[in-house]
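Continuing the series of single-chain predictions for the mutant panel. This is the parent chain; the variants come on the following pages.
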Amino acid sequence: MSLARGVATVGGYTLASRVLGFLRDMLTAAYLGAGPVADAFLVAFKLPNFFRRLFAEGAFNSAFVPIFAGMVARDGRVAARVFAEDAMAVLLAVLLALTILAEAAMPHLVALIAPGFRDEPGKLALAVDFTRITFPYLLFISLVSLQGGVLNGIERFAAVAATPILLNLCLIGGLVFLTPLLGSAGPALAWSVAIAGVAQFLWLAAACRREGMALRLPLPRLTPEVRRLGRLMLPAALGSGAVQVNLLVDVMIASLLPTGAISYLYFADRVYELPLAVIGIAIGTALLPLLSRQLRLGDEAAAAQTLDRALEAALVLALPATTALLAMAGPIVSTLFERGAFDAAAASATAAALVAYSLGLPAYVLVKVLAPGFYAREDTRTPVRIAVACVALNTIMALALMGPLGHVGIALATALSAWVNCALLARGLSRRGLLAPGRRATRRAAGAVAASLAMAAALEVAMRLGLSPAAGHGTARWAAMAGLVAIGLCAYGAAGAALGAFRPAEVMAMFRRPRGD
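Parent structure:
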């Protein structure tokens, strides 16, 4: 499967998942608002969700896929499957022990993640109860990550990319059906998270079976390949998860601010994560097995060209997404979340955080593209050194900016540290001769910048002429938002094609299935 086809597959399913995710968040905001129950649940959800992102989009994918894909290419599927089974057995044993320990120490763990809750015993108790329910999700979603690595390693991306849809469906169903039974949306959401982990595991187990890669569960044993996986996995967790570590730091610091700060940051995070997932994670997911295979076969020139094309695609897609979020942060947040318990003040505070986060969106995306350049060569140490430095920088800046800017300062610190992370990764690859963007990539990036500015101008004119979601309610608000999205897409598409940011024929080719695929 080509890189473009893989990106289109992962991005398409991810987009569908994120649309459902917005529906989920709209319902969550309406049911919970931005009060203490919302803050407690979001902390409870943050802990297993943090590990989900770290494993599914970070450490396990970065460490497991190069080894697995290399074994498929060199030793065949049977040997690769045996390695995956051994890895699963050891992973399950570790996760069971971790889950038992975490459940026993949950009050201390929650107090560590949200130190500000210690001053509010009721909120802390809620967060502990919710987290005890949600934490087993980590066990199942980590096994899902392994199953997803198997499927990605043989370049079968669809089932893995569709997996998050099940999480959103479970949470939506929990809000609608469990809330009346349990009397509160908080417990309903917590139990829905746990149920979603089981559903996702069963979904990918069936997908692996269809591809002839059904995984049995042997007794745990530390084979040489499993030991190698462990050595690569620990640094990869921090290396590819710098953004997620920074977001966890954001929650810890935001817990020191007045009630609502965690909720504002969460909902802003959910909005900018749509383009991050559809662009950055999709490209990174499709890029890693392709790079790993090319490098294992000794084709350095092809690998360099593949990374160049990935960077080109990332910039062409990320720049307009950033521009749109900056230009329409207020209307987007109001349209999505301002209803029920989520009032205009909460929408305004969330929009301010969204603007700050969005300033770092191109960097978040580029980190997802640059990191596989190291992981495909089984170098996880360089990204981890960079990540540790960036996490420290983010913490220092967040504490410094929290005073004058409140929760917005925390989001701004995350964006700035992401740019530092991106710059250091790019410098590391350049010094090794692994990153040297050609004239085509440079030209197209410049065209994307100019086209994004043209799109911003078109959106500003449209809003000044009265096409604004803030001016209406209900259907009118959604219609205005749809109109702005259409204007933005048309403006960027026309300007981008005219300025050479992309060629329409190449865009259409992404969605055509190659012969024999």
